[in-house]
Amino acid sequence: MIYAFYLNPTLDKTIYVENFAYGGTNRAQKSILQSGGKALNLAVVLHRLGTPVEVAGFLCREGCDAIERRLSDIPTSFVRLAGEPRTNLKIVDRAASVTTEVNEPGPAVSPEALAQLEAELSARLRPEDTLVLTGSLPQGCPPDYYAQLMRRFPCHFVLDASGEALRQGVRERPYLIKPNLEELSQLTGNAYSAADIPAILRDCRALLRQGVGLCVVSMGGDGALIIGNKEAYFTKAVVQKPDSTVGAGDSMLAGLLSALHAGASLRDALALGTAASAATISLPGTTLASREAIQAILPSIQPENCL
């Protein structure tokens, strides 16, 4: 079983504008309000791909109806928090194909709520399970919280985080990490561009030697890499003018994990991850790809060996 860890219940509001004016008045062409959060996005796409997944984490006592409806077909295990979920604002400039995000911090969690959630997880997790630690930590969580969980639970871990949560978590040797170029720089202290594939491979192999199982590096419109101990592959981006980039990374991770869970090769896992990401960014707001849309794109994805 794959468990998606949902710590920060979220609503996503996407506003579409043409030629966003920083500091000026912008008139929305349309807006969309949807349930969101990286773990939720991941779970929805995994479920659509037919991969067993469960969402564990927090929900608020108020304002989470949309989240619960989105997850109605997926097994869940939630601890309830007081208050309402955060709202994350996504401003999509259609002329520039750029998305600007303003993310609220979300409700605070108490040590008692964390302890209750951890007790429920402990009763469920088995050594063969995978726990996906993704997204920002809510108020009340220590910055090394993901690392603490990796030390505590005997299962496989996937880490999709940034900053201190990523730096501390990598020390616990997760099965897979999925940094973008900025997050990889946070780990290594080196700056990268998409043209620096030899440097990215070199530094990711150093992380593998430290105990990380797989590195997946997302490069936005410049493609993605997957790096293992004996293999490395690169895929180009197939959508040049996305409708919205929100959920792209979560969809990529879902495709990767779905393929790996089924025993696919690294090459095929990267292909499915890239197809899932491309299908999602072709849709408005935080609408997520369907299985049919992913399968339609998949034949056009041809990962290249980059060893």
Fold and architecture overview:
Helix 9 (266-281) packs across helix 10. This protein has a ten-stranded mixed beta sheet with strand order 5-4-1-8-9-10-11-12-13-14, sandwiched between helices. Strands 3-2-6-7 form a four-stranded mixed beta sheet. The longest helix has 16 residues, at 266-281. The protein is built from ten helices and 14 strands. It is of the alpha/beta class. It is 34% helix and 24% strand. The mean pLDDT is 92. The two termini are 32 Å apart.
Descriptive keywords:
307 residues; alpha/beta; ten-stranded mixed sheet; four-stranded mixed sheet; 14 strands; 34% helix; 24% strand
What is the overall shape? globular
How many distinct beta strands? 14
Instruction: Work out the strand percent.
Output: 15-25%
By helix and strand content, what is the structural category?
Answer: alpha/beta
Total count of helical runs of at least 4 residues: 10
Unreliable spans:
none
Outline the biggest β-sheet.
Answer: 10 strands, mixed
Based on CA atoms alone, the radius of gyration comes out at 18 Å
Overall average pLDDT: 92
Spatial strand order of the main sheet: 5-4-1-8-9-10-11-12-13-14
Question: How far apart, in Å, are the first and last alpha carbons?
Answer: 32 Å
Q: Tell me the helix content.
A: 25-40%
| Order of helical and strand elements | EEEHEHEEEHEHEHEHHEEEHHHE
